[in-house]
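User: I'm putting together notes for a lab meeting next week and I want to include a structural view of one of the chains we've been expressing. I don't have a solved structure, so I'd like a prediction I can at least talk through. The sequence is below, exactly as it appears in our construct file.
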Amino acid sequence: MKLECTKKLLDFLGEKPGKGVADPNADPLFSWTANLILLNRRKTIVITHVASHATFVLYGITAKDLRNIQELIMEGMENLLKSMYVRQEIIELYLRDCGRSVEFAANTSRSAVATCNKVCERVQYLTNLFDPGDPFQKPYLKWLNDDMIPKEGYAYVTDFFLSLLRKKYGAEIQRCRA
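Assistant: Thanks for the context. Below is the predicted structure for the 178-residue chain, given as C-alpha cells.
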C-alpha cells in the first residue's frame, strides 16, 4: 500500500522518499494520505482516504510505536472497515489488495493535502473526548466519518466509500451485527 504523507509526518517517521510521480492508472480505492498533528500534547497521525474522505486516527503515537507503525496503520484500516460493518471476508480482500506492507511516499496531489487538512480540523473537534490509552479511538470512528462530501450529489463519507467497495468486490459487502 502506498501512503502519501506530509513532510512533517515523513520527518517524524524518519523516512526519506524520493520525489514521486502520481500514477495515472492507480485505483482510487487504494489511495490514502496522512498528516501528523498534535492533540493534547500527543502526536496523532490522521489517515484519510483521498476519494471518499474516510478517516481514522492513530492517537498518542510515540517513538516506541514507530517500530510497528505499519501494523498499526493496517489495524486502524481494519477498525475503520469494521465500524462500517463491512464483512470480514471483504476486509481481508481489501487489505490483501492494498498490500500488507506500507510504502511511505511524499504527497503528489495538492487536493489530497487539502482534504487531509480539512479532516484534521474535524479531528480537533473531538480532541477532548479521546481516550489516551487507545491509539485507534474506535468509539469516534463513526463521528469522524459522519460528514457529507460534494461528490455524486453530496454523499455521506461512509456511503461513498462503501459504494467504491461495492464496485470493486460486489453487492454484498456489509453485514449487520445481531
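A couple of points you could mention at the meeting. The CA atoms of residues 147 and 156 lie 6 Å apart. The chain has a mean pLDDT of 89.

User: Perfect, that's what I needed.
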